[in-house]
Structure formats: structure tokens, C-alpha cells
Amino acid sequence: MIRKTIPVLAVGALLALSACGGSGSKASADGEDGVEMGPGVTDKEIKVGLLTDYSGPIAEAATSGSLGMEVKFDQVNADGGVCGRKIVAVKGDTKYDAQQTVQAYRGMAGDVAMIGEVLGSLSIDAIKTNLERDEMPAMAISLNTTTMLEPNVYVPLPVFEVELANGVSWAAEEAGASEDKPLKVASVTGTDDYGKAYASAVEAAAEAIPGVEVVAEPTFALTDKDFTAQVSELEESGADVVLLGTAPSQTAGVVGTAAQLGYQPTWISSSGAWFASLAEPLDGLLDKFYVSGGYGTLTDDVPGITELKDALAEYAPDAAPSEFQVGGWLFGEATVAALTKACEDGDLTRDGITEALKDLTVDYKGITPEVNLGDGDSIVSYSSRMNSIGPKGELVPMGDFYASDAAKAWGEANGY
Q: Are 196 and 165 in contact (CB under 8 A)?
């Protein structure tokens, strides 16, 4: 594999880099093939930054996702790369900490063509002004509309709001909800802008479906460890179905607390709310737990998954299988598609890559329906599918991908 880890910069160097902007975003030169080249690009390689948690609180899942992206690069490189250039992954450890994310970004900013992945809303918030200043194209693994609207940031998969809205639609259909047979739903979300967006998607979906009523919307702060108040509110509301716009740590806290209080609703989470490692601590509590996911699983019999498995066997044979590898592979597909288009256009500068991202169609080879990235501020797909939880925490598909009218109506109403 072609791997590079960013060097540790001295504090003085960091300050100097911050003071001068440091990205060299305007510098360019023509390559031997006539392609205009910007920072991070030579005649032999294209450097792509990966900003994720390699050693912090969610490192196990984050590292697995990053590996999926890296083996995609390895596969492409083995086939000759992008216009004869190898893709080099420049890895920055965010430790899922805002200050560390800024430092990791500064360490690579002057030496990469784009950021192929930034993990988490926290990290995007930390560097969004840097991305705009450096005219740095980036793709965010934080799959939500708030992130999507940041300058220079693309979200190449269905957002969590779509997953939750589709989850409401699925629950209503399963329950046979109608005016005569109402279904009470609730949401649990954070107090930040991201949480508010998730709650609004649930509200809009409920309003669009006859017989569905939102009866509770408890919220939590990211620092909360005790979820007794939120679960008590859910139980008192009589909610039959609870939509979780949570991170995995809050998922465990809410579901575990509900079990202690004897409250047993149907749980539906977004894909970002579930880690396979939760299966062990929540053993026996997942019979009515479902994940609305915007992309497929390692069990799918589609060309994209076959390619991923072959690449893992070739370039990371000792890696334990993980659904996060699927997500990373898809981000790799989108990155490769953008770089390929930019090269075809003769412009591998940051401006050229940004232009290539606009209206870029990405074929995920059956792992999820084909998407078009649009203007970067648009939802790329309204499709997701429901999954139950397998014995090892793996997602087990329950049907095909679908795009509910409720999700589409919510997106159209909000201009996405």
C-alpha cells in the first residue's frame, strides 16, 4: 500500500503556517502530459488527505473506514493510477478532538490536492474556515445537511436526515398507520444544529404520513452520560417508535437506560448511530432495533462489494471485516471519480478538482444507487434501506433501497 503519515510539526512552524495561510492553493504548473497541477500533485502522484480518528475514542471504527478508502486507492494504483499518477494517502490523526484536527489539517494543508475524508461534525466545524481560506475541496463523513452546506465540502452519500425520514415511513407502513390507527413516534437528538436538523426531518416525515404523530423530542448534550430524563420523557409520551439521531455512545446510553426502566419501543437509528461493537453491551436488547442505512453491507452480492472484498484480500489480508470499510470504499470511489474527471479536464489544481466535483455522477456499482453530487449543497440521494442487527452486530438487509415520498417532501421543502 502507498501510505504516508503527516510529520509532527513544531509549534513555531504551525504558527507560521497559520499566519501565512500555508496552503499554496494558487501555485500551479503544467505536468509532462499538459495537465495543470496544483499543491499535492506531481507527474507521478496525487496526494489526498485523510483526516480521521486514528487513536482517539472512535478509532476502531474510524480506522476501519479509512482502510476501506486506502484499499480503493491501492486498487486504482495497481491499474495505473489516475492519469498515470499514483494516489498517495496522507493521514492526519484528529483523535476526534477539535484542536488536534486543526493541527493535523495544518500539517498537511500545503501538500495535498484535496481532503478525501473528514470524520465527524466536530472536525468539520474545527477546520471549515481553513478549508474555505485554502480553497480546499473536501468530502465529509459527517453525513448531514449542516455539514453539506459548508463551503468546499461535499457529502457523497445520503444524509442521516434522509435515513431518519425513510425510517419514519418504513415504521408507518409496518404498523399500518392511519387516522384510525395512529402511530406515536419520537426522536432523540442533540441540542446542536445537527440534532435540530435530524428532529426536523422526523417531524416533516410524520406530518407527511397520515396517522403518524410526533409525541416527544427529548434532546441531549454531547457531554451527557445519564439518559434517565430523556428515556422517562419517551416512556411518558407513549411513543411506539423512537428515531435515534445519536452517536453510538448515546445510542448505547439511551437503549440501555430504557431497558433498565422497562421501556421497550421499536428503535430506528441512522447509520451513524450504530457500531457493531454495541452488540455485546446491548445483547438481548436489539430484537426491535433497526438501522436505516444509506449504503449496502459486506453481505451484498453486487459488483462493488466483490471489488472491495478482492481489494481487502489483496492489500489488507489481516484486517477484520467491517461495515465501515464499505463506507470508506465509497468515499474512495467518489474521490477517484473526482480526480479522474479533473484530469480529463486537464486541471488537477484545487480549483479544477472543485469544478470536477460539480454535477459529478458517481457509480457505486450496486452498493448504493448512483448519485450526482450536484452543487455540493444538494442531497445526492434519497435512498436508504432498513437493516436488522445480526449476532455480531452486523447489519442484515431487510429489503431493497427505497426513497420515501416523506423524505423527498422534506428535502424539497428545505431547498435541498
A: no
Q: Which residue from 251, 324, 306, 314 is spatially nearest to 281, judged by alpha carbons?
A: 251
Query: Residue 374 is placed in which grid cell?
Result: 450536484
Question: What pLDDT is attached to residue 323?
Answer: 87
Return d(Cα 339, Cα 116) in angstroms, integer: 10
> pLDDT tens digits for 352-390?
999 999 999 999 999 999 999 999 899 999 999 999 999
* Angle, CA 325 vertex, CA 149 and CA 392 arms, to 5°: 115
**Architecture of the domain spanning 160-293+383-413:** 3-Layer(aba) Sandwich (3.40)
Dist CA 160 CA 271 (whole Å):
7
Q: Give the amino acid at 341.
A: K
Of 22-36, 67-81, 300-314, least confident by mean pLDDT is 22-36
Round to whole Å and give the CA distance between 120 and 94.
10
Are residues 233 and 256 in contact, defined by beta-carbon separation less than 8 angstroms? no
Enumerate the CATH 3.40.50.2300 domain ranges in the chain, comma separated: 3-158+300-372, 160-293+383-413
Please enumerate in sequence order all residues whose Cβ is within 8 A of that of 174, keeping only pairs 6 or more positions apart, or say none.
none
Residue 188 near residue 263 (C-beta atoms within 8 A): no
Q: Can you give the pLDDT at residue 5?
A: 39
Distance CA 38, CA 25 (A): 7
Residue 221: its pLDDT value, please? 92
- The interaxial angle of helices 98-108 and 121-133, nearest 10 deg, is 40
Reference 53, options 148, 142, 161, 135; nearest CA is 142
Distance, CA of 61 to CA of 325 (rounded, Å): 9
Contacts (Cβ under 8 Å, ≥6 apart) of 138 = 114, 115, 118, 131, 152, 153, 154
- Model's pTM, two decimal places? 0.88
Give bridge partners of residue 269 from the DSSP assignment: 244, 291
Instruction: Say if residues 222 and 190 touch (Cβ distance below 8 Å).
Output: yes
Instruction: Select 3-158+300-372's CATH number: 3.40.50.2300, 3.40.1550.10, 1.10.468.10, 3.40.190.10.
Output: 3.40.50.2300
At residue 74, what is the residue type? Answer: D
Percent of the chain with pLDDT over 70: 93
Please give the Cα distance from 238 to 241 (Å, whole number).
Answer: 9
